[in-house]
Structure formats: C-alpha cells, structure tokens
User: Fold this.
Amino acid sequence: MQLIKDQKIIDNTWQYIADTDELKAGDISVSYARWQNDKQSLSAHDGKLGVRISSEDNVEAIADDLERLQLIELDFPDFADGRLFSQAWLLRGRYDYQGEIRAIGQYIPDQVFYLARVGVNAFCPKLPEELPGIINNLKDFSVKYQSSIN
Amino acid sequence: MYQYTNTDQTLVDERVAQFRRQTEQYLKGELSEDHYRALRLRNGVYIQTHAPLLRVAGPYGLLNSKQVRMLAHIARTYDKSYCHFTTRQNIQFNWPKLEQIPDILAELASVQMHSIQTSGNCMRNTTSDHLAGVCVDEIEDPRPYCEIIRQWTTLHPEFDYLPRKFKIAVSGALHDRAATQFHDVGLHLVKNAEGVVGFKVIVGGGLGRTPIIGQVIKPYLEKKHLLSYLEAVLRIYNLYGRRDNKYKARIKILVKESSLAKFSALVEKEWLLLKDNNELSAERIEAMCAQFIMPAYDGRAAEDQSFAEHQSTNQAFATWVKHNTADHKVSGYRAAFVSLKAPDSPPGDMTDEQLDAVADLADAYSFGEIRATHRQNLILADIKQADLFPLWQKLLELKLATPNIGTATDMICCPGLDFCSLANAGSIGIAKEINEALDDMDYIHDIGDLKINMSGCMNGCAHQSVGHIGILGVDKKGSEWYQLTLGGSSENNAAIGERLGPAVAKDQVTKAVVTILDVYIKQRQEEESFLDMVNRVGITPFKEQVYATH
Assistant:
C-alpha cells in the first residue's frame, strides 16, 4: 500500500499488530492500550515501534515514551472529531516529538492542509485514488494567519 | 476600517478556489453528502427549505459602501433582489443557486468580503458593539482586537472541527451592547487598578436551547496575552468538550458540568505553558489600532444651527432624532440608525435598491462606512448634525426611517417556518401582526424601551430568551404554538426571561403581547421601563391578565 509522507508518495513499511495478534518482525505499530500494558516487552522488539492513538487517548501519558517511538498513528474515528488536531499539536508543540505522525482512518482529503499545519507529516489514504488529491490539497493555501507547528 | 493586505486577499481568493473545487467535486458525485455538508457549512452555505442559504460575514458588523453595493449586486444578480441582516452582524441570501455560490464568493472576495466560518462547528464571525469607536461610554475601541481575533480564528488549523460552534464577542464600552455574557467567550476591555487597559474574560455563556449567562474566568488579562489565552480555552474545549450529544456540546455545558473552577484550572495550566511564546507584540497592536483611526471630523460641526431649528419646526424629524440617533463622542456629530423594521417588511430585510441608496448616503454623509447591529438594523455612525435632516428625508423616501429603534416594533425575528428547515413555527407573520396591532407610533413611544425577540424554534436564532418579551415558536401536534417569556436581557444586567405560562395558540400571540403592554401601561411607576417593572413585580400581574383573557 502506498501513502504520502513529506509530500511524496512512498510505500508503506509499517504493520499494525492488532491487540489479539502476536508481534511480528519488522516495523510495527500497536494500540495505545497495548503500548501502555506491554511497554517493557515491546521495547525489546527488533524493529521500529509505533503507537496508534485515537481521539479518546491522552498523549500526555505517552510523552515520556516518545523517544522510543518512530511513528504515531492518529486514527480518526470520524472526520468531524477534531480532538486529534490538538493531539497532533501537543505531540509536536508540547512534547517535541520528532518522528512520523500519520493520519489514518476517517479523516477526509479536504482536511490535510490543516493536519499538516498541526504537525501531521504522513497521510494514509482510504483508497489509492485519493493520493493525488491529498498531495494537491496540501497546497490549498499559500498564506496563514496564525502560528501553529507549520 | 481595516483594509486587506496581500496576505488577506490571497487567503480569501484561495478559499474561493478551494470551495469551487469542493462544490464541483460534490456536483459530480465525487464528494459525499456528509463530507460536503461540513465543508459548505464552513463557507456559510446551508441547505434550507426552498434553496441554499448563503451567510456572508460582516466582520464585527463593519462594512464600507463598496461592499454594500456588492451586496446589492449579488441580491439582484443571484437572488430575489433582497438580503437579510442577522443578529450576528452577518448578511444572508435566501435564494442563491448552489452551483453559483463559488461565483458569488469570488465577487465578494473582490471587495474584501467572505463567508468563511459563518456556520459549522468552528470559530464564527467575531461580533462587537455597533457603536464601537464613536460611543460616549467607551474605554477603548474594541475593533482592532476584533480584527486580530478575526485573523486568528480564520482557518485556524487546530480548531476548525470543534465539538460545536464557537462565538466570540468583544465590548469596549461601559454599556454592553455586544451581549458578551451570552457568548462562548465574551471579552470586555477594562482598566486595572493602575489604569492599564486589558480584558475581562467571560466564558460559557450562550443562548439557544439552554440559555446560560457566562461566568468571569479571568477578571483581568493583559492585552499581550489575548491570543495565548484564547488558544488555551479553545484547546481545552476541543479536547474535553462533549461530542456524544450535539445539544450538550457547546462550551457552556462543559463549563457547567465540570464547574467553572475545574474548567478554569485546566485552562490556566494550559495557558501557563503557552503564554510566554505567544505574546501579541505592542507593535502589532499599534499597527492594528492605526487601521481604525478616527475619520477627519469637522471641528466646527457643532456650530450648526439648522439641526435645532429643524427639530423645533418638524415634529416627525424631532421624533426620529430622539429614537433613531445616538450620542457621538465628537461634538456636533450623531450616529444614525437605519431602521430595517418598517411595519410592512420582514425584520432585517433590505432590497437591492435600498442597499445601493444607503451606500450612497454613507458616501455622502458618513465617511463611506455602514454598520450592522445586533438588532438587525444598520447604523451610519458619523453624521454631522447639519446632515441629519437631509439624511432623514432620504431615509424616509427609502422607508428606512421608521422611528422605532429600541421600541416594541424594533423586533428581532428569525426567518422562521417561511424559510428555515429547523423552524417549528412562523415568525415573520407574527411580527407583521404585532406591527399591525401596534400601529400607533405615539403608543409605541409611550411604551418606550422594549425588546421583543421572536424565534421560530428552540435553537433561538432571534435570542428570544434575552428579549424583554421573548416569543418562541413550538410545535404542538403539528400546529404552531408560542411560548412567551418576560424579563430577559442581554446587556449588563444579563438575565434569562421567565416563562409566562403555557404556550398560546398562533392567533392569540398578538393579543397576549398587547395585553402584556396594557398591564405595563396601567401598573408602571413613573419613568419605569418595561424591564424594570418586570423586575419589580415579577410575572404574576402579566400572567393573570394574559391567561384570564384566554
């Protein structure tokens, strides 16, 4: 599957491991709950680690773990749920997270300009045909009124 | 008045291009109904009973003559030759075609106007005192801060998908004409003990289904912290506001359910982490204030004798001056209201011809500026006293001089069942009936200061809960009924009206209002206003008479 990272189309190298599944080799992401429960054992994993968070999760609780995480997936339950915009801002602006922040789930391509401004740098499309639109929409505005992350 | 820079112009032009693309995608079936809905709302486009409705932003109510002529042009070209002024100082078109809205927005952008964030669950048009900059009781002109907030709220990347809509109002005067206690955030310019002007911050007020008076969260905030404090409030609201029930999603419910103390502690913690990196510089404030400098007033305006002469020889003119003009901080000037409450036209509506004519009058007499008020009228804010008589004559010809500002027939009224898909009951028809019943101007003037607000459903667009008399349309088994309240106020003495009793049938509303006014006339004390009397005697004397006659 392809996605957009730093405005370029690339191949996805990450796998999400569901809570009931065994860990696999390679770059993996796990749920926020699994990370909270199995942090110690996960740290021994041979490969990069990521955490998938949703609107209800509190990023402050993983603030101290961010150095060990190369990916944070923001899993939108619904495009109208704007909490993850603030979560992204907190990750970058408050906790100085340097890794990849990836939007996944039910966000819409018309939101990517805002998402990029609050620090999201990767976008996983629902369908491959959305890829060109997402790249295009990242350039919706050439000006801005307020400071944010970007 | 603020003039767009290249940045402002680019932003609105790019927004038009974005919305054009989104609308084309929707019309081609490439964008779902649900997704397009969220996007069009953020561009002021509702789908109503008959057609789309386009709500255009009037930034804190301020318009210039060129912009008003553009509204006339849009009304003529794309609509049925009229538009409607709302209680939030915005302008609505009731009949545009969806496929033409991108063109309308491009026309608006050509005169520095837009419809960005005039609806949807985002930060809305910032409103203010319609007498800002000219009133006699002003601590400081709020408009530069309104413009700073307008820019900060516009396309804010983090806060465009809030739990619910979010409205900010700013007042700079002693008398609150901006209903700041009924906004999600209300800001009052105040002086601290050292005489330095800052903001009193009020949070969690609102009207609609659950009217709540806002509470002071910060008695004094230095100006430089304005945006960081707003950011903290918005971030806490965005993260913690309820999203499970849209009727409980406004910030007022979060503040109420968590308590002001807890909400305020969360905001304070967030703000302390932000404030030092987000200061509003003194240079930025100064530069913005320079956009709102006083116009070139005539220092000899007060020497004119004709104004007094016309008043003594022309009773109708004197009456208009008394009711439809307000004191001005510059001697020899007054602010003149343009009444959009003529007895035979829907409250707040204006035709293309009236719009063009008012733009001409603004150019001739008021430095080319026009303001929209919260009570759906306009103001020409800087009229030399010698010009009031010719202005009045022209307004008379235009049917814009009904001397009823602040009186019983200066009703606030939503579009109601005639246009709105949410409404349970009609409101324009009732307004017309009340107007017909109160057709004696002397009687209306005798009643004096009275605010009648009427909404066609409990969403409360016409702010009925803060009307001295509130009228709320409700649906009772398929027929239109009306709930009356008394004693509401959106000013300094903020209050939510008390329910008079059971709802009355449609054909009894006017009779009930007339009865209420009769009780007031008979039982008032000397110089006592309607609201003062309600506050003194309560609702019982009114209730007895209204329900006795039914």
In short: Residues 122 and 146 of chain A are 22 Å apart (CA to CA). The longest helix of chain A spans residues 32-43.
